[in-house]
Input
Amino acid sequence: MGKVALVTGGSRGIGAAISKALKEAGYEVAANYAGNEDAARAFTAETGIKTYKWSVADYESCEAGIKQVEADLGPVEVLVNNAGITRDSMFHKMTPTQWKEVIDTNLSGLFNMTHPVWSGMRDRKYGRIINISSINGQKGQAGQANYSAAKAGDLGFTKALAQEGARAGITVNAICPGYIGTEMVRAIDEKVLNERIIPQIPVGRLGEPEEIARCVVFLASEEAGFITGATLSANGGQFFA
Ligand code: CAA
Output
């Protein structure tokens, strides 16, 4: 049996590519998802990867979900905090609900998922935490005060926890994808995407989910043990942090 990897938001978009790449690399993968049952069923049918439904925004659900994954597959050694949502709006129109939903999932979700696996990783003296932040947490994005704040928070979380985990053999790193060709990005108004966003990407195209998945496989490996607290940007040259 390989090491167990748990990927949040792991049945769609970038997360699905991550789950598949980790499976190909020999991990026993559990893919968490929040709501889209049809997509999860189709994903399991296609890949054989087991899916688990809970919201990363709720601490008790995370505790219970992780307990189930560990009962089924064994202790989680690799956690990929990938689940994320957008509620884009210019700030003057942003509602408290739009703010809260994004912070609860994209920032508090990292606490809710990492806290229940942390003690086990410390006891076993091994772990890999990989947080999927965003280019927009690095540079900020108009229309995304909520998302940019949460994703910047993910980077602070990564750096603090990297210091705490180092002596226990746990690495904590972040990946900042740029604009990747997923449903989330394709939901942006086509005119905004084509006229305002793609022209800002020097390689001249959206990224592929697999280009992020390969970064995850690298950071998850035992060989990456000297890399911790790092931010790996994969954005087609759009922003140099
Ligand atoms: N900088 C400054 N001002 C801007 C701006 C920018 N980048 N973009 C728009 N504005 C201004 C407009 O010029 C306009 O000004 P006026 O009212 O003076 O004319 C005003 O803001 C309103 O613009 P819109 O007509 O676009 O407003 P809207 O309410 O129709 O749409 C929006 C707002 C939904 C946020 C839309 O602009 C949008 O979708 N923007 C893209 C946001 C984005 O990049 N989201 C990323 C999603 S993918 C993701 O998050 C994955 C990842 O990690 C990369």
